[in-house]
Amino acid sequence: MLRIMLALLAGSLFGTGLMLSGMTDTAKVQGFLDIFGNWDPTLAFVMGSALLPMALAWRLAEGRKPAAGGSFPAPPSAELDRRLVLGSVLFGAGWGLAGLCPGPAMASLSYNSWQGALFMAAMACGMMAAPRLSRHLDRAAANA
Amino acid sequence: MEADWIWGLGGGLLIGLGGAVYLLGNGRIMGASGILGGLLDGSGRNTAAERTAFIAGVIGMPLLIGLLTGGTPDTHVTSNAAVLVLAGLLVGFGTRVANGCTSGHGVCGISRLSLRGIAATAVFMLAGFLTLAVLRQLLGVI
């Protein structure tokens, strides 16, 4: 029960932050990515200040256990592979195209627009296709 | 608008606090694509309850604020259905293949100086810059 309450709290903070920071506004996100246009730096402020509590949290996690039990994530891998790069290229292209990434896409669902719902449905299809399609890619890469 | 960066800083702090609660409380990395994707493809079956609770907060709190304040912010999202579908497929597929998005690789990865997080963020931002440069500045189609 504690895990569920904490997850609900974390999600509420995240959703509120996305809404207040303007990150559910695709014009602001595309404005940040449009470096040759009328550049909007808001996303950089959002990212910068989001890093502060998070960096502190990683420090606090050292030598401790999570409050609701279990263990902290393993130290990050330093391995850069093809999947990380290829996936990020595709994600960045889609992000630029519509100005939505997964967090704001979820947060703005409550605004009740058909556009948001359609994006979300397509995103869900892409997510469900990924494990299957990437197995094919891995096999093709192994045979190459 | 002049106040946008202040809202950006304040909202960003809340985003980071959410990540801190999820990490220090549940011991998990707050990545929107991973939390949702794990529910959709079944890989997160054992943690389905906390994933669902997180998503309920992400959608529910803006909904509640919208109801209380009597208005939701404008999303300025495109009404071109083909663009929405293509963008959604790319975002959904790409984030799962790369194992993270703006929150997981960006906020949570960079803050622990993860090389993968920093590299992924650099790549998806560059891809985003390029998309806008070509499709908006060169071709004027979005």
Architecture blueprint of SSEs:
The complex is a heterodimer of chains A (144) and B (142).
Chain A: H1 2-21, H2 26-33, H3 42-61, H4 82-98, H5 102-107, H6 114-143
Helix pairs in contact in A: 2-4
Chain B: H1 4-26, H2 32-40, H3 48-69, H4 81-97, H5 102-111, H6 115-138
Summarize the structure.
Chain A has 144 residues and is mainly alpha-helical.
Q: Using the CA coordinates, give the radius of gyration of chain B.
A: 17 Å
Strand residue percentage of chain B:
under 5%
Number of strands of chain B: 0
| Biggest beta sheet attributes of chain A | none
Secondary structure: helix percent of chain A: over 70%
Q: Kindly state the mean pLDDT of chain A as a whole number?
A: 94
In angstroms, what is the radius of gyration of chain A? 18 Å
Oligomer: heterodimer
Q: Outline the low-pLDDT stretches of chain B.
A: none
Say how many strands of chain A there are: 0
**How many separate helices of chain A?**
6
Gross geometry of chain B: globular
Strand content of chain A: under 5%
Look at the helices and sheets of chain B and give the structural class. mainly alpha
Structure description:
The complex is a heterodimer of chains A (144) and B (142). The termini of chain A are far apart. Chain A has helices spanning 2-21, 26-33, 42-61, 82-98, 102-107, 114-143. The model of chain A has no long low-confidence stretch (mean pLDDT 94). Chain A has one domain (2-143). The radius of gyration of chain A is 18 Å and the shape is globular. By secondary structure, chain A is an all-alpha fold. With 142 residues, chain B is mainly alpha-helical. Chain B contains six helices and no strands. Chain B has helices at residues 4-26, 32-40, 48-69, 81-97, 102-111, 115-138. In chain B, helix 2 (32-40) crosses helix 3 (48-69) and helix 5 (102-111) crosses helix 6 (115-138).
